[in-house]
Design goal:
By secondary structure, the chain is an alpha/beta fold. It folds into 2 domains: 166 residues, HAD superfamily/HAD-like (Rossmann fold, 3-Layer(aba) Sandwich); 77 residues, DNA polymerase, domain 1, CATH 1.10.150.240. Helix 6 links the parallel strand 2 and strand 3. Bound molecules: xylulose-1,5-bisphosphate and magnesium ion. Xylulose-1,5-bisphosphate binds next to helix 1.
Amino acid sequence: MTLPQALIFDVDGTLADTERDGHRVAFNKAFQEAGLDWVWDPETYGALLDVAGGKERIKHYMDTHNAIGPTTADAAEWVAGLHRAKTRYYTELLLTGTIPLRPGVGRLIQQAREAGIRTAIATTTTADNVHALLEHALSPGSSAWFEVIAAGDVVAAKKPAPDIYAYALARLNLPPQACLAFEDSYNGLQSALQAGLRTVVTVNDYTLNQDFTGAELVLSDLGEPDAPFVVLRGCSVDGQCVDLSLLGSMFDQSS
Ligand code: XBP
Ligand code: MG
């Protein structure tokens, strides 16, 4: 059975459902701390998710909602400061353990480790957020399980640009054909596809109706043996959860 040499995971929406009750709440706390009357409700935030990157999302909101920001000359630094506050609130929120991993994520990561399959992260979010999520939702010390954590500003162009996946592949020193990406959104899928990666998509409430053309599989989630996934689009697969035998059948078909 041919297996991928590395699995590359997106974070927000893929490892955990972090956006509505995590990032969005943290943004609103930071706005309140700054004395702003900005409030991102779940619907507004869902539309803003089309813009990857928290700083870029704040700037986009200011530009498109006539939101009054700083009078200071250095608007970029003001946005960066607001975003640092948001990241503080978000990592504090993750400490409470109220945002669990999505179904099948922990199981697949453990199975990959036991099988000697390398793992990496390719995400738009800030590195501090990745470490906090892994430490508190996966396992203490689990950040070290990932050979590469490609996050946030390590690349200039964020998803849907391919840069973050290209960065991860370069540090893995692997060709995209040897790897498999896991994503949740249109922007993330475009990023992975443009980097040459085959991609499995697990949808969530914010991304359910997005265009996932080009994905190998579109699933409700990675599934558990006692809680099967639902195949929404893609090749017919045997099995009830994304495990090594399913990945092997995918790679056997293509090799
Ligand atoms: C999702 C994003 C991030 C988060 C917020 O990242 O676009 O911007 O919404 O995190 P991905 P930051 O799906 O690639 O994991 O505020 O730290 O950007
Ligand atoms: Mg995502």
